[in-house]
Amino acid sequence: MTAPTQPGDRVTVRQPHPIEVRSYEILRSRVDLTPMPPLWRAVTERIIHVTADLEYAVDVVTREEHLARGLAALRAGAPVVADEGMVVAGITARPAVCHIADPAAGRLARAAGISREAAAVRLSYAEVGPGAVWAVGSAPGALLEIIARDVRPALVVGLPVGFVGAAEAKEALRASGLPQVSNVSEKGGSAVAAAAVNALLYYDGEAA
Description:
Keywords: Cobalamin biosynthesis, Isomerase. 51% of the residues lie in helices and 9% in strands.
């Protein structure tokens, strides 16, 4: 577990590696996302950049106002909460809270008869409270717990991967009314969830 930044902390403008610059040039030559609102485009392009999967251009589902809310929260120093360590590792510009490996999550799971992922969500919410940005790339159960516990997020990045429960959990997130970014298919994963968060952390423009 790592601590969130303090309110008002801002990430300095980054200098992308030449390989990243070339990657963006290639993806933009293959798919035109300019009709998208700026934040939606930034998130989708970064997901395509890390996956080399152009299908995300039509698979990502969000609303620009949801992303703007998440961006504002991050710029104000809101904590980021991740469902597992690989998401934490992938978010390069901001430390993230993650309780999945906390022994207390195991004890709570056994005592309450819930999954460890759900227990980690409960512990994280007890720590950060409302207004956080939540990133799920692995566990559909974590996403369902976020919905059920009414964590009052600034944004939920719900991009778990898998053939069992992932698409259904993302559909439930979209139906919940929570501010969110997700995708329709079974695709996703830790790198994808981290990419969506990084896209907002790296964004240096103004929301529409």
